[in-house]
Amino acid sequence: MRSRQKGNTSAQELMTTRRYGEEMPGFAATVYLGLGANVGDRLANLRLALQRLQTLARLEEVSSLYETQPQGVSDQPLFLNAVCRVSTGLESQALLRFLKNLEWEIGRRPGGQRWGPRPIDLDILLCDDRVVDAPELTVPHPRLAERAFVLVPLCELAPELGHPLLGKTMKELLASVGKKGVKRIAPRGWEKGEGNEGIAGAEA
Ligand code: ADP
Ligand code: MG
After folding, report:
1. Which of 118, 129, 147, 188 is catalytic?
2. Helix axes of 11-20 and 92-105: crossing angle, nearest 10 degrees
3. Going by CA atoms, what residue is nearest to atom 3 of ligand 1?
4. Could you tell me which of 87, 81, 16, 88 has the C-alpha nearest to residue 46?
5. Is 138 in the pocket of ligand 1 (CB under 6 A)?
6. What is the pLDDT of residue 201?
7. Any ligand 1 atom below 6 A from CB of 124
8. In this predicted model, what pLDDT tens digit does every residue of 77-127 receive, in sequence order?
């Protein structure tokens, strides 16, 4: 747990937190987010999401980029997936509202098929070691432990991190799921680039 430095909040961040919810004074949570896209310019969508996230959260680390087989509904395009770690003073429900709004901004519309194609998917995977069980928000993410496309990038950033409910580390969870269907297609730093140079399989 890290406390926010006094006077360190930007004007833009303040405006955003006023819009989405209350910041908890002097408190910042470490949050792992899962990002996915399989419609449109997948790479541009993920880069835009990471850029916009920084209006309210400090982006600390981003995993490599992966191309993954769809799960749940198999007859749909391949996904690009990554995981990032952010530090934010926003409480988790407010963060979810911000993420849903950002999904809309990037072109996702509600009512699509469950686990179907989407231009962007932004999920809260873990929020410190907190447990949230609300109608619209479950943390840790309820399907984290069964998704290789989440666990592979997450293990890159935090292999020894413990799941607050399952009592296992991310590395242990990945060992039971395996890495099938998850292919690393670009090293760290992919989000800072422009175009798709060196990113096999990603569109221009
Ligand atoms: P999924 O991410 O499992 O493919 P969706 O993106 O369609 O599913 O999300 C459906 C709903 O899941 C969202 O509207 C949101 O309210 C809810 N939800 C519950 N827990 C979370 C979480 N940890 N992160 C993101 N959304 C969540
Ligand atoms: Mg989602």
Report:
1. 118
2. 100
3. 115
4. 81
5. yes
6. 66
7. yes
8. 999 999 999 999 999 999 999 999 999 999 999 888 888 899 999 999 999
Phi, psi of 118 (to 5 degrees): -155, 140
Does residue 103's CB lie within 6 angstroms of at least one atom of ligand 1? no
**CA 144 to CA 124: how far, in whole Å?**
10
Rounded to an integer, what distance in angstroms lies between the CA atom of residue 26 and that of residue 156? 29
C-alpha 77/C-alpha 10 separation (Å) is 39
The CA distance from 120 to 95, in Å, is 16
Whole-structure pTM value? 0.89
Ligand nearest to the CA of 111: 1
One of 42, 52, 123, 147 is an active-site residue; which one? 123
Tell me which amino acid residue 183 is.
Answer: K
